[in-house]
């Protein structure tokens, strides 16, 4: 067993850290106030080839694993960018795995290089307002008409839909009642985000203003058959393929955000003098921060364990879910503690930690609730009966 | 022409070093180490010369512990072609490093050696000049611009009060100042490629170099701490204090 | 045995860092001062008057290049136990070359003399002070001027002689220099220094601190961040990788106080910091801190000083 990062991992962290260091706290504070996609980060990462970290080498990627992608996402979040930075590229890193695995050679060559080079951004259009996490019950309909599909329906919580040029869309091609199995009848498409047929309404939200989240109304969008990934009706199975990597990456981001908060809080506690001594000399300040650090490290190790299992071709569902749960909760607690450590100033925007706290809710809620993870572990790991 | 770029493994510039309690040196265990920033500028300049077609091959060399391979890898990821590690665990003073580099130069035959003007650990600012002396080559220290002009190298140097330009016969030594260039960030494809580039390892003894230090460190101590003073509320108050309390204006 | 100091001179005068070097050298033996380059002879009388100088030697009146100058110093070295120069751009350029030619390890940027073999020098940007003892027979040294009170400019009456000559190895030629003419004092010799940081936001904005400098007769400096951003030329840089200053008054304007910068100015007698970030580390070393927007505070300072 070897927990050490390889020199290549260290080089990766160093290089990403430098790119992120060009965008300081003031940048992210400004983005959080005004909104607007962090194009500077996206383009700098694209220029360095980082968006292709886990894409195959023959389409211009680096052919590395989710382990490396997780290290990268943690580094981005931890740099001060938080979820504002991580979410801006999250989808582009792993989201097109279904194309990598199930796409044709022609599709891979057509779809992946523009994404890696940063010329195109993709959004992930799966969730719908009336189905929640019950993904097999999706209503958005894609009807085959000759060499194209025509799509009608609604999606919600679609991040970066304001700026994306492309969309990975899951839509129903066979009505639920006609499908052979619950998990069949949905198809996956990667296609142009045609704004003449799609209306996007931004959802005002608690944090991460820089990366928009939206309601999306699709009305008569035409998708050529060659933009369908894999077989018709098998889309749900394809999407599942990306679920574990996504949980691993979001866990890494949450751990990075938490570590960021703890290090800021510790730095503040060292400097802030009240009653003639630094507040960090008080155990009431020290102990909660130490506890946060330990929980974050435990979650990070679970994340790396899950990533290692995924990259080694081992089953990793339990570990990926556990990592996402542990990191999200530890990240939230760390951000909350960071605000409390700062006292009144923690509530002031210019101390940044209140932004982290708002952003720390994202990995708790998305892409799956903590409760569903608990049910998954109870059922699949402990063998208890299904509760819902 | 071949270009040799020495790179040094040093405590990262963001780390605030702490003096060891026993006064024997500074704490370097569990401290982030990086390539000396001026050496990064040297690597960058070499890579730019290669991109312009002036340099044909860039060799990154480091003298230090085996972990200095990481700094060589960084140079390779920036665009150097291969590396040489001169492995040595003890103290290496600039004179010893210059002697090691002289032996490497004899083996590799570069027409130009580009070094950082100063390492941020010992702050000696000496290795480039010492190497130039040992080789009997011309030196262009504290360079802010270099241009190859036939068999000579035109070097613009940062000097007190402004700039000075000298022409050096090649082969020559250049040491880099801050404004020579802005080093690039290693890209992912280049980090991947760097993994496959060769690093040769030798020992000072293989090169016939005696690296015995000439200086013995008797003690290392912290400088006297400065006390933070007071905050003043206004410019008027500041000027009043400077005039009547500090009496410096 | 006597010790040799390589002097920096300008406009017929001897620089203050050179006088500090003479002060450091005086503890080691009779001080001889070598002047080379254009204007060397003209500066000889000033060198001869420095207290503690026993002899002045003048060399060729031509632009100074490291290679022939090193050859000259090596030729003169047998007569001296120590060869010293201020840690100025020219001293740092030539002295390591001399040391290597003599097969000795240079002692760069010393801040203290313990005895003839033992010296104190700052390392890690001045965050540590190392006391080192040299086993070399001859010592080649550059001196941190800010650490030694300069030898008095008056009081000596040294003899002036021609320096010996050495052959030019012909490795380099001098093409030209662009030296900025300034009415302001040299950074390393000024009694007051006012420096701007990245928060100056442009090179044009340096004009507001220059106005204050002119009222105070101060030199103008810059942080590495400001130099990096292109707001100020490198020879204005104060810090570990720039100039080391220790004036009576140092005013840091819009400078956060990176370790690197503190290394260059923390020995100043009185430090003033003007910064809008109350948490900026510069305040930890400042005697007087003013939390304010520099674009408001600096013009106010100019007006207040002009009163």
From TrEMBL, chain A:
Gene3D superfamilies: Acyl-CoA dehydrogenase/oxidase, N-terminal domain (1.10.540.10), Butyryl-CoA Dehydrogenase, subunit A, domain 2 (2.40.110.10), Butyryl-CoA Dehydrogenase, subunit A, domain 3 (1.20.140.10). Its EC number is 1.-.-.-. It is an enzyme of class 1 (oxidoreductase). The keyword Metal-binding does not apply. It comes from Paeniroseomonas aquatica. This is Acyl-CoA dehydrogenase family protein. Residues 233-367 form the Acyl-CoA dehydrogenase/oxidase C-terminal domain. One of its GO terms (molecular function) is oxidoreductase activity. Keywords: FAD, Flavoprotein, Oxidoreductase. Pfam families: Acyl-CoA_dh_1, Acyl-CoA_dh_M, Acyl-CoA_dh_N. SUPFAM superfamilies: Acyl-CoA dehydrogenase C-terminal domain-like (SSF47203), Acyl-CoA dehydrogenase NM domain-like (SSF56645). Its cofactor is FAD. Residues 6-118 form the Acyl-CoA dehydrogenase/oxidase N-terminal domain. Belongs to the acyl-CoA dehydrogenase family. Residues 123-219 form the Acyl-CoA oxidase/dehydrogenase middle domain.
UniProtKB/TrEMBL annotation, chain B:
Pfam families: ETF (PF01012). Residues 23-211 form the Electron transfer flavoprotein alpha/beta-subunit N-terminal domain. Keywords: Electron transport, Transport. InterPro entries: ET-Flavoprotein_bsu_CS, ETF_a/b_N, ETF_b, ETF_beta_N, Rossmann-like_a/b/a_fold. Belongs to the ETF beta-subunit/FixA family. This is Electron transfer flavoprotein subunit beta. It comes from Paeniroseomonas aquatica.
UniProtKB/TrEMBL annotation, chain C:
SUPFAM superfamilies: Adenine nucleotide alpha hydrolases-like (SSF52402), DHS-like NAD/FAD-binding domain (SSF52467). It comes from the Bacteria. The lineage of its organism: Bacteria, Pseudomonadati, Pseudomonadota, Alphaproteobacteria, Acetobacterales. Residues 3-178 form the Electron transfer flavoprotein alpha/beta-subunit N-terminal domain. The keyword Cytoplasm does not apply. It comes from Paeniroseomonas aquatica. This is FAD-binding protein. Belongs to the ETF alpha-subunit/FixB family. CDD domains: ETF_alpha (cd01715). Keywords: Electron transport, FAD, Flavoprotein, Transport.
């Amino acid at each position: 067993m070897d927990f050490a990062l390889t020199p290549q991992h260290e080089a990766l962290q160093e290089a990403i850290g430098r790119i992120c260091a060009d965008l300081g706290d003031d940048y992210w504070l400004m983005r959080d106030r005004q909104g607007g996609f962090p194009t500077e980060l996206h383009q700098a990462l694209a220029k360095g080839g980082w968006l292709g970290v886990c894409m195959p080498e023959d389409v211009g990627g680096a052919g590395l694993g989710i382990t490396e992608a997780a290290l990268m996402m943690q580094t981005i979040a931890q740099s001060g960018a938080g979820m504002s930075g991580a979410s801006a590229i999250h989808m582009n890193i792993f989201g097109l795995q279904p194309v990598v695995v199930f796409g044709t050679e022609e599709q891979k060559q057509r779809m992946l290089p523009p994404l890696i080079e940063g010329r195109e951004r993709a959004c992930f259009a799966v969730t719908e307002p009336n189905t929640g996490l019950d993904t097999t019950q999706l209503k958005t309909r894609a009807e085959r008409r000759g060499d194209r599909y025509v799509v009608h329906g609604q999606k919600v919580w679609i991040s970066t839909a304001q700026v994306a040029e492309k969309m990975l869309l899951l839509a129903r091609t066979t009505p639920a009642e006609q499908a052979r199995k619950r998990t069949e009848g949905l198809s996956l498409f990667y296609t142009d985000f045609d704004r003449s047929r799609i209306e996007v309404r931004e959802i005002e939200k608690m944090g991460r203003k820089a990366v928009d989240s939206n309601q999306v109304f699709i009305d008569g969008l035409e998708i050529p058959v060659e933009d369908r990934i894999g077989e018709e009706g098998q889309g749900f199975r394809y999407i599942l393929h990306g679920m574990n990597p996504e949980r691993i990456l979001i866990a890494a981001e949450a751990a990075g955000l938490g570590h960021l908060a703890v290090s800021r809080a510790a730095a503040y506690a060292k400097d802030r003098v009240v009653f003639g001594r630094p507040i960090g000399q008080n155990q009431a300040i020290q102990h909660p921060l130490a506890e946060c650090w330990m929980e974050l490290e435990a979650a990070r190790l679970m994340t790396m364990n899950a990533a290692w299992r995924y990259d080694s071709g081992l089953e990793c569902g339990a570990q990926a879910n556990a990592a996402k749960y542990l990191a999200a909760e530890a990240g939230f607690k760390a951000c909350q503690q960071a605000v409390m450590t700062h006292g009144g100033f923690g509530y002031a925007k210019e101390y940044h930690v209140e932004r982290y706290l708002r952003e720390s809710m994202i990995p708790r809620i998305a892409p799956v609730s903590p409760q569903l993870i608990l049910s998954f572990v109870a059922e699949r790991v402990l063998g208890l009966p299904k509760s819902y | 022409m071949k270009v040799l770029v020495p790179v040094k493994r040093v405590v990262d510039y963001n780390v605030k070093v702490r003096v060891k309690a026993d006064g024997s040196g500074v704490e370097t265990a569990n401290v982030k180490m990086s390539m000396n920033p001026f050496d990064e500028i040297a690597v960058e300049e070499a890579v730019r010369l290669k991109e312009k077609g002036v340099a044909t091959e860039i060799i990154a060399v480091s003298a230090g512990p085996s972990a200095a391979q990481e700094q060589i890898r960084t140079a390779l990821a920036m665009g150097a072609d291969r590396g040489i590690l001169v492995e040595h665990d003890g103290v290496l003073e600039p004179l010893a490093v210059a002697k090691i580099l002289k032996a490497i130069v004899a083996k590799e035959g570069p027409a130009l050696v580009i070094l950082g003007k100063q390492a941020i650990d010992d702050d000696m600012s000496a290795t480039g000049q010492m190497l130039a002396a040992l080789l009997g080559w011309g030196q262009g220290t504290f360079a802010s611009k270099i241009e190859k002009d036939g068999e000579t190298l035109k070097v613009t140097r940062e000097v007190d009060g402004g700039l000075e330009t000298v022409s050096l016969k090649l082969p020559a030594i250049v040491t880099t100042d801050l404004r020579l260039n802005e080093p690039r960030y290693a890209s992912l494809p280049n980090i991947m490629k760097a993994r496959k580039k060769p690093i040769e390892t030798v020992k000072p003894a293989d090169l016939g170099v005696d690296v015995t230090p000439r200086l013995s460190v008797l003690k290392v101590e912290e400088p006297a701490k400065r006390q933070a003073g007071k905050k003043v509320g206004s410019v008027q108050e500041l000027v009043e204090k400077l005039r009547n309390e500090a009496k410096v204006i | 045995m006597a010790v040799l100091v390589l002097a920096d001179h300008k406009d017929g005068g001897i620089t203050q860092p050179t006088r500090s070097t003479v002060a450091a050298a005086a503890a080691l033996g009779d001080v001889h001062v070598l002047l080379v380059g254009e204007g060397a002879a003209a500066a000889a009388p000033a060198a001869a008057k420095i207290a503690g100088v026993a002899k002045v030697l003048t060399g060729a009146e031509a632009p100074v290049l490291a290679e022939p100058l090193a050859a000259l110093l090596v030729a003169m070295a047998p007569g001296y136990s120590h060869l010293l120069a201020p840690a100025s751009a020219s001293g740092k350029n030539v002295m390591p070359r001399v040391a290597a030619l003599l097969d000795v390890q240079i002692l760069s940027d010393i801040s203290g003399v313990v005895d003839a073999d033992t010296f104190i020098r700052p390392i890690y940007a001045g965050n540590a002070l190392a006391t080192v003892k040299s086993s070399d027979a001859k010592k080649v040294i550059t001196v941190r001027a800010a650490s030694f009170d300069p030898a008095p400019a008056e009081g000596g009456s040294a003899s002036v002689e021609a320096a010996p000559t050495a052959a030019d190895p012909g490795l380099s030629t001098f093409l030209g220099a662009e030296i900025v003419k300034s009415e302001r004092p040299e950074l390393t010799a000024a009694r007051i220094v006012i420096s701007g940081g990245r928060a100056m936001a442009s090179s044009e904005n340096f004009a507001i601190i220059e106005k204050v400098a002119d009222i105070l007769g101060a030199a103008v400096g810059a942080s590495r961040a400001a130099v990096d951003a292109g707001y100020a030329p490198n020879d204005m840089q104060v810090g570990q990788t720039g100039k080391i200053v220790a004036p009576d008054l140092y005013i840091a304007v819009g400078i956060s106080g990176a370790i690197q910068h503190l290394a260059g100015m923390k020995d100043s007698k009185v430090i003033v910091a003007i910064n809008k970030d109350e948490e900026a580390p510069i305040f930890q070393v400042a005697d007087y801190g003013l939390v304010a927007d520099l674009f408001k505070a600096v013009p106010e300072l100019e007006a207040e000083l002009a009163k």
